[in-house]
Amino acid sequence: MAATLPTSDQRSAVSPVDDSDPSALLFTSALLPANAQLSANESGLPLGVHIAPLAHTLEPQYREALRCEAKSCLAYANKFCALEENSWRCVLCGRSNRFGAGLTRDALRQQAEFTSEAVEYSLPSLGMLPPRLVVFAVDDNLSKEALRDLQQAVRTILPQLPAETYLGLLTFGRAVGVYMLAECDGAEAVMFDAEPLPEEEAASLRSQTSHFVGPKYATADHLLTCLSALEPPPPLPAALATYRTACSLPVETHRCMGSALEIARQIALGLSIQTPAHVDVIVTLCGPNNKGLGALPDATSRGAERERQAACAALRSLGLRLCRANVAAHVQCVGSHAFDAGVLRGMLLPCGGSLLLEREPDSPAVGGALSSAARLTANLTSILCRSPHASIGAGGGAGGALSIRCTRGLLAAAVVGAAAPYDDADGDDAEHGVCFVGTLHHRTRLSVALELEGAVEARDGHAVVQVALRYASEYGERRLRTLTARVPLTDSEAELLASVRVAAATDLLAKQLLLQASKRALQPDTVSQSVQRQLELGIDETAAALVQSYGSAVEKVTPGWLWNTRVTVGYDVNEKLYGLLAGLYRLRRSGVTRPLGDSDAAEVLRLLLLTAPLEATSLLIAPRLLGVDETTGRTLRSVPAVDLALTREAVLLLDAHTDLFVWRASSVEENDGRCSELERQARAAALSRFPAANVLTFSEATSAERWLLCRLEPSRRDPPDIQAAIMPELSTILDDTRQKIMERLGHTDDLSLWEWGKSCGVLTVLP
Asked: Which of 23, 172, 290, 686 could form a Cys-Cys staple with 260, CB 3.0–4.6 A?
């Protein structure tokens, strides 16, 4: 089958995601259990729905939405509601609601809410929407190379931003500097202490917002001038530098990033009085946040773990406040320091931010790799240059309030994604609200775990789930978008398992396991175990629960004098259950669990897993291996993602979404056209994704080849019959040739899928 490399807004023809359902609500199974006895939560089978709130462009309806009058329901009219003579019947609660004045049944049949599952309404405006604000927050300790990368990216981005976009600049070190971009031509800043601002000083800062930020047409040149002024002075002559080094004490660097983000939040509050403003803060960080709000302790100090937990809580609280102020923080970590990115993830997740890692700023492009400046420019383009007229979906918005209503007996238990808990201050229907979504764009994804409470109150054998989102669009209008889906119910365990959508279920399961592992790693009794270890344990426990709950037990009968003894020796699994087990196995081997680099690299992938679209997370969990068609030299075809593929292919590409590995056999020349074409496609796809992917090219038998082997399943450990089932062409080779292949790939202690399945009690693991 021919294949292409997917971009951030495009899926491959051989993508592991089932794209047959274009709905904005994708359930983990095509059927839902009819009662709590079939509830899949205790058995490990995930039950939930993935929400893509702004993935599709909808024509707004300029009228008031019809709403159920029952105070315990308040659902919106939808296509599954029955139209009667003078009323419409709510499909969720069954209440009959009379038509409004001038409405008839025939007229309502033509309206969007009774013909479409997704409807958008334009609501009365609260006033002019504040301009979008982009704030650059720069570490005072940033290297010259990293600062020049940032300057180059900003110069490229600024012409693409709308003229009415407001710009701001902060620096942070021992203190926070807020540059007065709207007031003077020089690089002049007001300094704030790293400690929390008193309320009087915070109010004064909000009242002076107009001095610090201004529209792009008036502040763009001033911003570039101030960024240039941040460059460190040229180095001293060697003799003078040696003398000063010998006479001076070591200098300790400080970074009060948390305090800088709190000040950015105050500026955002000063910019928006009644309606929400969409604010993006671009943070460039070159070391751990070790001063001010959420400061991380020295790892060697006494009580460091207790202080780290306090920092986690402080930054998590900051992330929730940023979400409510519609501020999204995007942190790029630059350099070789340890950033403790797991703490940053807790802050960035609720506010809809992103985490990027650049270990070698200003690195040259070697072996097909992309320079750090090119990656930063591509990432800022994805974050800041979202066209509201793009065909991929709505441009975005801010101030989103999400509510979820389900048929009685079905509950929304938890929301995973960029959201904060909903309270009474966030809307007029807070009693039915689930979460507050500060910033929205076409990539925004939320996953909802569903639970059953008793029997589901079926309507014609179906359950109904409705998602309502109130937000302010980039056009300056207040909008209401309703998404409604109806799902059949079943009383059969076999039917429920057969209806599972493997990719969607694996994605929700991976998110739940990651959050559970992160929470357990912070508990005092498990503090010695990392997130990686907790995640591995959770995966193994979930796999065992799935096998025991849904596998077919195979018993061994031993005859006895009085009775026969029956012992369960294992389980047989069907295709759907095998798909879930294979997804868990690949999650266990993925960069989310086992990073190729350090723990900070894993945290980048973990945040992406919790927030990215399904097509991206599927590649994070199960990378795709593509080979080049020998006849054309251009067409890509799917290859089993196993290490044995390296013995049968000449040129390969491994696509893990954030990493693209181009491999060539030793028999292929370096200037071979197939490699050049594959590198060209990889670089083009890398720059169009978010985050921009790393591209690495290497050849067979080099030290870098281990990076590829770490992401491929070690099928060299499997018996010959299993290997032949995976790659049929291996069945024709001789035993001595097979032995040479195994020696060529080397020894590994990692379990293959077949071996891991056996350890979970599976007797027959389908290849």
From this structure: 172
